[in-house]
């Protein structure tokens, strides 16, 4: 998910938050927590507004990992090395591996892929409508073909879940781990979007492992038919869907805010190397806001989990990055947050307004 970023930037620029009343640390790059006793009163927690998100961060320190770097030496970090569920934010690694493969000639972005091959990794009615929306935008049907690069746009723009597993199957795990390492993520373990979903709705069928089960779904028509029938059952969800999804994600799709911020920065500033421009073009698919050369982003959402990573390239060459990984959200907070995407507004403001960054430092 997370395609609404430009819609919330207006809210970000309208923030009028009071900065901390004490002076910032002597070292502007310090990431140590500033106690809230030395700061102005924090706002009430409210995930429907950028300001309210500051209060939410303050009230939920154990379920948030964040790194915000304005590119000018000012950094705020909290739980930056603590693994958190990533949801679809992890797809930046699949994008990076694809970009490297295109750059070295392993893949041809214009190659026509049968939509049926893509859909071997697609489990209907489990992705919030992302896959059908992608097909509609691209003007293709299940009987047709799609350019490989267009398939990749669906992974980033609509957050299609079948595309990353298609790429993992085609490129192999070594390509994904190598791309992650190129971006500074040296302990990356490739996840499976389809496998996570199968583990959620059919845990008894995943004893062989999530990726093996995902591959079975893709290659075994009989097993696929069983799962498709199961998805239609009214009692398919576990008794505790939020807790179960959190467990599955932590086992198969977890990472740290610091690692995720690092690969976004490497792509944005070009230090990723070969393929950086290709990956950057996909992440910066929306028009840049005024005064910026590009705004890249990829986030995700699953029950109780909301994640976002951004990079902002300014005309003077400054590159800012922001990552917020949130887990263990209540159903009410999660639903409200998805209805507003206000966290994106806060992140953009923190990358561009020092007083907002200081205010977040007060909260965490």
From TrEMBL:
Top-level taxonomic group: Bacteria
Protein's name in the database: Serine hydrolase
Segments forming domain Beta-lactamase class A catalytic: 67-271
InterPro entries per UniProt: Beta-lactam/transpept-like, Beta-lactam_cat, Beta-lactam_class-A
Species of provenance: Rhodococcus artemisiae
Signal sequence region: 1-19
PROSITE patterns linked: PROKAR_LIPOPROTEIN
An annotated Gene Ontology molecular function: hydrolase activity
